[in-house]
Input
Amino acid sequence: MRQTFVSQLRWVFCVAAGLLFVAGGAMQSAQAQLALVGAAKVDITPKQRVRMYGYGSRITESEGIAGRLKAKALAIGGEKGEELAVLLTVDSGDVPGELRAEVLRRVQSKTPLKPERFMLCNSHNHSCPDLTGTASMTAAQSERITAYARRLTDLLEKVVLDAITARRPGRLSWTRGTVGFATNRRVLKDGGWTGFGCVGGALADHSLPLLRVVDENDQLIALVVNYACHNTTLRGNFKQIHGDWAASAQEFIEADHPGAVALVTIGCGGDSDPCPHGTVKLCEQHGRAMADEVKRLLQGKFTPITPELVARSRPLEVACHEPPALDELRKRVGQSWALGRVLAELERGQKPAKTRTVQIATWVFGDDLAMVFLSDEPGVDYALRIKSELDGSRLWINAYTNEITYYIASKRVLNEGGYEARNSLSNTISYGIPERVQPPIEDRIVERVRSLLPDGFAAD
Ligand SMILES: [Zn+2]
Output
């Protein structure tokens, strides 16, 4: 098992500590300590028509722009260079890992930024350019996507550097609210999956953590919210570019709070859809609901966050089974795009993968808050289990981070079967034979998260 770099650097703003604290004991103890913080945003809307992400039924290119796409960056710390951390949110379906790596390489050529301190959170929006599906495109379509990817790389580099440049002394604090539109989408009959729908009352995670970033004078710099739901208000029949509810939420939040940069990260929403769905108006309805909750929360109490951050990253590598003969695999592919991708790799002559990976990282802010970052598409069971087995009152869980390759199905979803199970990591490593790996992937991921967090984050 490969273990990547684990950083234990403490994020102590030692130089700043003596210089930047506000004088006055009582005032100081009630507020978070000062850190360097900066935020920036950039428009990443495509300038020409492109093939769109997310729905197989869309085989033609986009037909205009219904909403703008943005990328936002929040830079924290970094007075000593290596202590910098950057959270980057992108109105994207799936920014490929190589593109993220290129952005990181470019930023690193200008300022030290360690990989586990650079988290790219995809909004997993389904009405944006398809950066991962070039194999199914015509040469001209592929050329337009490649041009967009080149421009996006430049823009992501720019927004990260802009946020770093914009840093000034500020404070972090957080709170949590709830918004109700995320709805479990797995319709079951007799314990088995039968299709997609809006299953009211079934498991969903409605929590809305909110990070508030202000400068020394309490002026808002950034507001970061997290919500566990697919960005699929707009469906396959919608042919225009739009950032779905996450983009609408950002626009409303920024309009409500001029000067603030709004960022949205997505939680474990692998089996949750926004309900109701189907129109731009409903994107705006969901975005407005989120912005209203942010407005309400800003009137209330926030927990200060110490500007002391430990970032750790340790991917979980899961061994693959021996691949079957290609003819056998072709029979198994059925309705699994995840297996289809594996088949395409083998048909191109690629060696069978020995392992498949889930990226897992944590940012721990002293005793105040731990952010968990998971790659891919974990379902709601992961968030609920991690928050119940650890101290959920101090946890913030981001999914869709850095790369999206498959669903991460829970034991429950694997037993029920259906879409997310067929396109899961579990199904990929076993080439379509239902998972029987021990210990189960769900247990391994929860254990890995637990191992990355300090003991103080254990549940009482
Ligand atoms: Zn998805």
